[in-house]
Each structure stands twice: as structure tokens, then as C-alpha cells.
Amino acid sequence: MSDGVRLLLASSSTGGHIYPALAIAGEVRERDPDAEILFVSASWEIGKDIVGSYGYTQTFIDAQGFDRRHPWNNIATLRSLVRSSKQVKTILRDFRPDAVIGTGGHVSGPVVRGARKQGIRTMIQEQNVLPGLANRMAEKYADRVFIGFSEAAAYFKEQKKITVSGNPVRAEFFAFDRAKARGDLGIPAEATVVFIFGGSQGASRINEAAVETIERLGGGKGYTILVATGPQLYDEVLAKTKGLSLCPVNKTEGQAFCLGDVRIMGYADPIAQYYAAADLIVSRAGALTVSEIAAVGRASILIPSPNVVNNHQLYNAMALGDLGAALILGEDEIENGGLAEWIELLVREPGKIKEMGETARTAAKPDAVKVIVDELFGTSPA
After folding, report:
1. Global pTM exceeds 0.85
2. pLDDT 10s digits, 7-22
3. What is the 3-state secondary structure (H, E, C) of the chain?
4. Which of 16, 43, 81, 168 is deepest in the core (most CB within 10 A)?
């Protein structure tokens, strides 16, 4: 049997929750090659296969989140909580972790609560400026609460538990520089590169604006436009480009190339390479996305999703917007060619783009994952 640390990571499988957990796991494995790491996720989630692609072992529970908009749907949620509590007991009994870290979402709460009842060390990591309900409820069961933004502290009750660590960003975001990323992707060094995406699953409104941007700025006008549509929306976006004279010139599985160095893909992998190649990033304002943009030091246009609880993406965006590192736009401002106009406005001032990127980097917390794993291994400063 391995003598390494035994770590259980509990996370919902959306990118904003799972990638911080993967960053933590990577740092743990780097320090302790004998570490035993197990991920717990929900069996029904779209992103449940992400963990396996990184080579980690994963198990599932039936936890579901509460539907605050339609309370009558929560009967099934309550039943799932009973089932998941039993499943958590079995997982903890069989795996016997030294510590449990929850990174948010409805899976995190039952696992952290169950671990605390068994006397296992527990920690939670909250990515957002406005914390999620799961982590606010799990606070009382956690020995330590790590937060991505200092503003989040006001939403927790036990201040002595809190460490402002920043959000754990995967090591790959520090592995690429602009020249290497552009060389690997075959992008001219002198091009103005705009990377547009709507999160790991994509966003229809951003994709629609991206098609309009391709029509206006594509086709030999000095721009390289990279669009990651989300895997489920790729065919839909490609169909919309067929009316444009630019697209597609060449199509492969999950990726299409258009005139004027326009590239449309279902998913950008590794996404850190595309961040690094860009001069300007256009995206939603998930907490991890904001932290990744800061890590690579890029100017951004952030379009917070209006469909999230308590409009928390707006608060995330303001962490960069208030510094002057990002332009924050509503969905109505990117319609009918509006996004292309804003991009042109920023690009006319290359000094401004550079300044925004440098300012974004000042908001980065490159040691975030180290701070968390130091606590796990008991090497945090007193």
C-alpha cells in the first residue's frame, strides 16, 4: 500500500469547479508521487469525463443542487441528498482519506459534511467573489476556507478559518508565452489575435456575436480570430457561417478554418495556449476564467452571464474591470455587430491593450495552489 497522502477532492464537474480541483491534485502529485487521489463528482453531469482525461480516479454520487427558481422541483433533490449521504459514507469508509477538499457545487457539500462527521480534515475552496450556496453551507464543516477573491470574505461567518489564497490555476497557464503559443498554433507574430469563447460549454449569445465579428473583421484585415464555440454548439455556429463568403475554407473534425486566419473550434485544447497567443480575450466572467486571464496577463472583454444565481459573474468581472484591466459589457451591447465595434475600439490603441494586460497580471495569485497544498501538508507559515 502507498505511504503517500490520501486526498479526496469533491467537486461539481463544471469547469469553474473542477479545474481548481485538478490544479490542486497536480500540485499534490508533484510533491508526493505516491499520493492517492480520488475525485467525487455527480453521475449525471455533462463534464464528468474531464477528470478521467487527466488520469485521475473518479467516483460518483447522486447529489443534485436546489432549484431556487422552482422550489417544487426540490422533492427529488431532497431524495438525492439522502442517497448521496449514504454513498459518501461508503466512499469515505473505503478510501479512508487523510483530508477532503471541496471546490464547490452540490457535490462538495455532502462530502465535506460527511468527512467532518467522521473526524477527517476538511477544507473548501471558493472561486467566486459572491460565494455559492454550497460552500456557504459547508463553511461550518470546514477546518479551512480558501477564497479566490478577498471580497468573498464578507459572505462567510467564521473569519478565522479564511485564507485569501487566490484561485488555483493549472500549471499549463504558466507554461506558454506569446511567442511559443503563436508558433505552436501557426499564428503570425505580428497579427492582432482575438480569442472569443463562452466557457467550457459555450454560450449562444457570444457565439452569435462571434459570427458577426468574423463577418466584419475577418478576411485579411490583420486580425486572427479564434472562436471556441463549446462542443455542443459547434455545428450550429458553423451553419451560421455558411452565409459568409469567408467560411469555411477547410473543415476537420471539431475545427474549421476560414479566410483571413479565422478559426472556429468546438473546444480549445489546451486552452492556456490560446489565452497566451491572444492580445484580447472575449469571454464570460466565470471566476476561474477571470483568474486565468489574470494569470496570463491579457486584456479582456468580459460579458457576464445574466443567467447565473445572484448575477455573481458581474462581481467576478468587476475584480478586473475596477482595475481597468477589462471592459465589462452586457449581452445587449454585443448584438448587431456591437462586439466587433468594441474590439476595433480597443485595438486602435495597442498601448491600451498592453496596459490592460499588465494590469490584469497584477491581480493574479500565482501561488494560490501552493498556499492550499502547503496547508494540506502542514507546511503553512504560522
Report:
1. yes
2. 999 998 777 889 999 9
3. CCCCCEEEEECCCCHHHHHHHHHHHHHHHHHCCCCEEEEEEECCCHHHHHHHHCCCEEEEECCCCCCCCCHHHHHHHHHHHHHHHHHHHHHHHHHCCCEEEECCCCCHHHHHHHHHHCCCEEEEEECCCCCCHHHHHHHHHCCEEEECCHHHHHHCCCHHHEEECCCCCCHHHHCCCHHHHHHHHCCCCCCEEEEEECCCCCCHHHHHHHHHHHHHHCCCCCEEEEEECCHHHHHHHHHHHCCCCCCCCEEECCEEEECCCEEEECCCCCHHHHHHHCCEEEECCCHHHHHHHHHHCCEEEECCCCCCHHHHHHHHHHHHHCCCCEEECCHHHCCCCHHHHHHHHHHCCHHHHHHHHHHHHHCCCCCHHHHHHHHHCCCCCC
4. 168
